[in-house]
Amino acid sequence: MVVAERKPLNELLEMVQPYKKILVAGCKGCVTVCNAGGKKEVEILASELRIARKKEGQEPDVKEITLERQCDPEYMDQLTEVIKDRDAVLSIACSVGPQYIAGRFDDKVVFPGLNTTFIGGSLEHGVFAEFCQACGACGIHNFGGLCPIARCSKSLLNGPCGGSSKGKCEISKEVDCVWQLIYDRLNRLGQMDRLTRVIPCKDWTTSRDGGPRKTIREDLKL
Ligand code: SF4
Ligand code: SF4
């Protein structure tokens, strides 16, 4: 999933300060799973905005909505009515969401309420970690099913570096050295011979380095 975290309240209050009628828009996708921008978080943020405005002596006018997804044009229709009288929208979807809203509703000011951080998963309740950098040409089968691009601090394809110690990365004792994990896993799989192969330089044109990307599925197009 896409992992994101909410911006600090002060930052959000400053963003929407000039606008009276606010819409807080959440998303039922990834940001619900990582507890950053689902229905519950919309309710909390809207309440915080109302309280802040009341403290400033203003009558708060904050509406709420949580879309099925904010990264799909068909769900933008859910905004059509509620957005009409709004001065600004505070989207707490991942950063795709506010861009979809801005693209669809030309006359509305849109703010990102979240910082989109990475593609990852949960390790335990409330703890999320990065697992993929969307390089566009997955090769984790070469590494026992683990991704050194996302999970090695130096994105080494031929690791480990000299800083690995007791299974931890040199950047922090809290961070596993993924090359230790790769070694352990290849050992368990009986594939240690893979470590003798030199992985060639990666072609990064499939990654962001080749410019903004698109996936076109001819079989799905109407
Ligand atoms: S190899 Fe690329 S696509 Fe596969 S997990 Fe790593 S970054 Fe993601
Ligand atoms: S210690 Fe391991 S994870 Fe950290 S940079 Fe070196 S090889 Fe990569």
Structural class: alpha/beta
Give the ordered list of helices and strands: EHEHHEHHEHEEEHH
Could you please say which CATH topology of the largest domain applies here? Rossmann fold
Rg, rounded, reads 22 Å
What does this protein structure show overall?
The chain has 222 residues and is α/β, with parallel strands linked by helices. The chain has two domains: 2-117, 3-Layer(aba) Sandwich (Rossmann fold); 133-203, no CATH class. 28% of the residues lie in helices and 20% in strands. The chain contains eight helices and seven strands, in the order βαβααβααβαβββαα. The protein has helices at 9-16, 30-33, 39-55, 73-76, 80-83, 96-104, 148-151, 178-189, and strands spanning 2-6, 21-27, 61-67, 88-91, 109-112, 114-124, 127-132. The chain has a four-stranded parallel beta sheet, sandwiched between helices. Strands 1-6-7 form a three-stranded antiparallel beta sheet. Helix 6 (96-104) links the parallel strand 4 and strand 5 (109-112). The two termini are 27 Å apart. The protein binds iron/sulfur cluster (2 copies).
